[in-house]
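Thread: "does anyone have the structure for this chain?"

Original post by V.I.:
We have the sequence but no experimental structure in hand. Need at least a predicted one for the grant figures.
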Amino acid sequence: MDISSVPNSIISDHTPHSWVFSFQKENVFGVIEIEDADGNASGMGEKFLQELNGKIRKPLAKLEDIHEIIHHITKVHIVSLLIGSTFHDMIHIGVYGAGVVYIKRGNVFTKLIDHAGGLSGVVKQNDVFVFLTKTAALNIKESELHESVDTPIAQLEQNIQTYTESHTFPMGTGIVFFPMHPPTEYNSVFKPNQEKPFPLRKGPLYLVERMQRGLVELRWKLKDTNIRLSILLLSIFLISVGFGIHKEVTTKHDISTTNTMADAKRLYEEGEALLELNPVKGRERLSQAQKILEPLKETVTSTTKEGRQVIDLYNLITKTLTQAMHIYTVEPQLFYDASLLKLGGSIQYIARDGDTVVLGDTTQKAVYILSLSTKTGSIVAGGDIYTGLQSVAMHGSTIYALFSDFVAAIDTSTKQTKQGVIKKNDAWGTITDSISFGGNIYLLDIAKSRVWKYMATASGFSDMKEYLNPDTLPDLTKATNMSIDGSLWIATYDGKILRFTQGKENPYVPQGLDMDLQNDLLVYTSDDTKYIYVLDKKAHRVVVLDKDGIYLAQYVFTATLNPTRLLVSEMQHKILLLDQGKLYSIELK
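Reply from O.Q.:
Generated one for you, C-alpha cells below.
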C-alpha cells in the first residue's frame, strides 16, 4: 500500500517555493508544509514522500513510533509536519516545526496542541481531529474551523467542500479533517453569556441623600398637618426608590453570578471531555473552573436556590478534579525489618531484579536478599569489608557491591564474594551510585559529571568507557541517584529529572502536576517497569509519570516518614521506601 492523499483535506496549490500535501497510509495520516527559497519545494516534497513511504511498513502502535519517524526523516525546509496514527481506541499525534491540532468532541471544539511535541489519548466515536500547517494556523480563524466541523459526520465532507468553495487560501495552507466513524448528531458548542455587569449609577443614591436632607429641614421648620402628610408621602416614595435600587443591584449581582457559573460550567465540560484524550489539558480546564468559581462560592449560602447551584457545581468540579488527579493519601506500612534476619540488622542500600530485592547493611557488615512475593530473606555475604559499602546493584543471580576502590561480585547461589571484578580507575572522582543493566555496570560520578560504563564480557568486564557522548556535558554535581530502563534516568537535588538515551541527553519535562516537583528528588524505573516514579522528599509524596512526562498519580504519605531510598515492583503492586534502616510499602492503585 502506497501513500495517498487524505479525502477530507484542504491543500493549496504547489509553487516552486511552497509545497503542501496531506497523506495517509496504513493507520497513519497527516499533513506537511515545505518552503524552499531556491524553488525546489516540489522536489523536496517528493523526496519526503519516498522516505515516509519506506518508513511506514506496518501500523504505528504508539507515540514513540511517530517520534522515531520524525527523528529520522530528512527535515530540511520542513515548516510543518503533523502526523497522527489510530490504533484500537487510541490516537497518537506528533508535531514537528509549527502547526496546530484541534479536536471536536460532542459539543466541545478545542485546541489540543500548538507546538512541537506529541500526545496520546483515547478516541471516541464521532470525534473529529483537525490538523493545520503553520500557514493555515496563521490565516484561518478558529471560529471558521469550528463552523466547518459543526455538523453530523455524514455531512462533514459536504460542509468542508462548501467551506473550501467560499474561501480563498494562501500558499502553504494545509488542513486535514479526520473523523472517527460511525456518524452521529452533534450538539452545537455551548457559548457562555459574554454580557458584562452594568456599571453602578449614582443617580438614585444621590436622590435619596437630597430627599433625606430635605425631610430633616422640613421636620424642624414646618409643623402643620399638610406638611406632615407631604412628608409621609415622600417617605413612601423613598421606600419605593430603595426597593428599586435594591432590585437593580440584585439584578446586576444575578447577571455576574450567571456569567461566572456559565464560564465555570463551560470549563468543566471541556475538562471532562478532554480527560481521556489529553489528561493534562483536561485537568487544566478543571482547575480553571474551580478557581473562577471559588470566590463566588464564598459569597453565597445554601439557603438560596442560586447558592445551592453554585455550591453543587463547585463540589462537582472539585470531586472530578480530585479523581482526575489521582491523589491518594496513604500510610506506608512496615514491609521488612532486617533485624528479624540478623540481630541489629539495618538497611542502608537497596536494589531490585525481578522478585528479588538486595539489601545492603553497613552496621552489621552484611548483604541480604529478600523475596518480594514471600517476604523470605537470607544472608548472602558478610565481613568487615562491608562497613565500606557504598551502593548495591543486581543482575540475575549476581549482586554487585560498590566500595571506594573496587566493585565486588556476590554469587547468591554459592554465597561467594569475588573482590575487584572492577578496580578503581584513576579517572574516578566521587562515585555515589551504581546500577546494572543487561549485565553491564554503570557508575555515577558526581565530581566529574560523568557516568562510567563497564560492559560485561566472557571473562569479566571491559575497560572503563564513558556512557555519555563527548558532546553531552550535563552538570551532574547535584545528582542524587540514577535508574535505567534502556534510557538512563538521573534525579537531582535541585528538582530535575534528566534522561539520556544512547549517551545523548533526551529532555524530559513533567507535565500536569498540581504543584511543581520540589528539591531533593529520587527517581526509579526499570526494564520491567512501565512508569517513572519520583520520590519528592520535601513534599512527602511519590509522583507517578509516564515516560513522555505526563502526570498520572501521586501518593502522599505522613510527614513522620523521611525516606532515603526508593524502588518499585509493578508486578507486586508495591512502592518500597527505605527509612531509618527499615523497608515500608505503599500499595499501587
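V.I.: this helps a lot. The longest strand covers residues 78-87.
O.Q.: and The chain has a mean pLDDT of 86.
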